[in-house]
Amino acid sequence: MFETFSLSFEKERDAIDVFESVKELTVCTSVNQLYAFFYTPSPPYDATDGWSIYSPREEFGRMGVGSRTKAWRFTDINKDYAFSPTYPSRLVVPTRISDSTLRYASKYRSKCRIPALTYFHWANYGSITRSSQPMVGIKQNRSLQDEKLVEAIFQSHHYPESRPSSGPVYGATSTNLIVDARPTANAVANTAKGAGTENMDNYKDARKYCAKQTT
């Protein structure tokens, strides 16, 4: 569904100016024409230290990590990017999982991208974590450390110190879902390359959803 707007102008010159402006903003011939390149914030950002604008600790703290829930903790296991070069330097993982367990679990994930927190709901304690594909392979390999990590994630919203009350919380659910963004055929095909998708026999109390194949 599309919305249609009709604009009326007293002068033809004004109509042409608006048309040209809209065209330039919607049909860009260079990336430098994008809004981000000419937008001026108020007050302006300090351009001398852009890396400090985003703080993982402040952002996850805003969601409630460390205050509303003790089920999650920060880890600096990747502070020098040696643990996983394509992951952030600071990660949020279940409190009950040690860094030693994370190191073992990382061997089971492509490029060591372990399941790590990306979003925490302040009210119902639900979470979204991300990871790379598991290294299942043709032999159906498994990792007890990875399974323990995923289990801790699933149980995080039942953590004793997470809930100040026992009353029902809007949106709360006991359903644990593993989402594979690839079509099932693609995920299974990667098994021949030593990777693949989670064997749900090893991940209890959870369901899996795979994207549908498009034609």
UniProtKB/TrEMBL annotation:
Molecular functions per Gene Ontology: phosphatidylinositol-3-phosphate phosphatase activity
SUPFAM superfamilies named among the record's database cross-references: (Phosphotyrosine protein) phosphatases II
Segments forming domain Myotubularin phosphatase: 50-215
Binding positions for substrate per the UniProt entry: N190, T191, A192, K193
Pfam families with a match to the protein in the record: Myotub-related
GO biological process, one term: phosphatidylinositol dephosphorylation
Protein name in the entry: Myotubularin phosphatase domain-containing protein
UniProt organism field: Rhizopogon vesiculosus
